[in-house]
Amino acid sequence: MAEMPPHFFARIDDSPDEIFYSTPRFVQHIDEPAIAAVGALYAELLPPNGEILDLQSSWVSHLPESYRPRRVVGLGMNAEELAANPRLAAWVVHNLNADPTLPYPDATFDGCIDTVSIQYLQHPVAVFREVWRVLRPGAPFIVTFSNRCFPTKAVAAWRALDDAGHVQLVAYYFAESGGWEEITARDCTPAIGERTDPLYAVYAWKAKP
Predict the structure, then answer these.
(1) In CATH, 6-206 is 3.40.50.150
(2) 193 C-beta neighbours (distance < 10 Å), count
(3) I need a surface site. Which of 104, 128, 141, 200 has the fewest CB within 10 A?
(4) Is the model's pTM score more than 0.85?
């Protein structure tokens, strides 16, 4: 995929994100089978007893009860939602579209997750580089997403693509940001014999020296 021009990251509603996210939304953005699939993937790939960064976090981190990290830190857009998240040991309100720099030292975390929110990033490659910076060598970065979004806040490239295109787009973010090993795409849509929200994941590990 060629380098993407800036207008690919334009949005229908380009007002400050602080306005859109000022009101808390205590809702689930994917259905229960998809939520369970997210949790199963995180439990499979995240290291045990690690320090985990929940990027673009909210009131739910989608980590299963069976997974017990040492510490989970959340970065999101609404203080009320973050304060209501029982899995977070600490959190910060931070607008990644205004400033892609993560407010953490180098090599702080053993893993990072981003759940059904990647479609809103206007500087995704810069954010992926920052995630790489704050992860320890060998740590995974796991991005999960569905086909649901707030369309006025999703970037143009996301709105223009189908599910397969979304997978390729997120893989492109990993490839362009550099320093990742084993970039992997997976269809995690639950096979339960009935209609459910689709779920996809793209993940990779910070390369070891």
Answers:
(1) yes
(2) 6
(3) 104
(4) yes
